[in-house]
Amino acid sequence: MARRIGTDDPWTTTGAQLVAWAGTQTWARETRRGRRTTFRAFWLYGIEAGLTTTNAALSLPRVKPAPPMPHPTPDTVFQVAMRRADERERLMLRLAADCGMRRGEIAVAHTDDVYEDMLGWTLIVHGKGGKRRPVPLTSGFAAVLRSQPHGYLFPGDDDGHLSPRWVGKLITRLLDGDWTIHSLRHRFAARAHRVNRDLAVVQDLLGHASPATTRIYVATDDSDRRRTIEAIAS
Prior knowledge:
Order of helices and strands: HHHHHHEEEHEHHHHH
CATH class of the largest domain: Mainly Alpha
Domain Tyr recombinase: 67-231
Pfam families: Phage_integrase
Strand order of the largest sheet: 1-2-3
Structural class: mainly alpha
Helix content: 40-55%
Number of strands: 4
InterPro entries: DNA_brk_join_enz (IPR011010), Integrase-like_cat_sf (IPR013762), Integrase_catalytic (IPR002104), Tyrosine_recombinase_XerCD (IPR050090)
Protein name: Tyrosine-type recombinase/integrase
Keywords: DNA recombination
Largest sheet: 3 strands, antiparallel
Number of helices: 12
Strand content: 5-15%
C-alpha cells in the first residue's frame, strides 16, 4: 500500500495520503469495510510496537455495511447436486445445507463431535477462532454420522483430514451455476429463519458473533412486513 501511494514507508504515510489513495480504489463496499478494519489494526500494531505514534487509518471514514443480500442455493440446484454426489460428498452437502457449516468446519468434523443428551442428538461444530457451537441433529442424520468409521468424517493429508479448500472445491463443482458451498450455508439460514423468526436462534446456529452478520444471510418476507402493518392498523 505504501509503495502504491509513493511513500514506501507506511509509518510516514499520513492520514490525508491514505484517504486520497483509498478514494481512488474501485473496491466493493464490503471490501472497503474490510480494508479499513485491516489498516486500523495495522497502525494500532505499529503504535504498540513503537514504530509510529499516530494511526493514519483513523482518518478513513466509516463505511456503512451493504444492505442484506441473502444468496441461498435453490432447492432444485441442491437436489441435483445430491443426485450427482457420491456418499462422501452427500454427507458434506448435508452438513452445509442441514447444519449451516462452513467448509472449514466440515473439513474437521469428527465422529467424537456427535453426542446425545436428554434433549436429543447434537453435533459440536468447531468454528472460527477456536469457538465451538452445538448444532442439534435429527435422529436420522445423527445415525448417519454415527455410522461412519471412527475419526474425522473426511480423512485426508491436512493434519489427518481434508483441507477446507478441497471440501469447497468438491461441493462447488456439484452445484450448477455460480452457487458455492457457502450459498448452502445461506440456504440453511433462510430455512431456519423461515421456521423460527427469532434472529438470535439463527445467529447461534450459524455461530455469528454479531446479529448484523446474520442479517446478511436472511431476508424478511414481504408478507411478514404486510401482516405487521395490518396488525398495527387493526
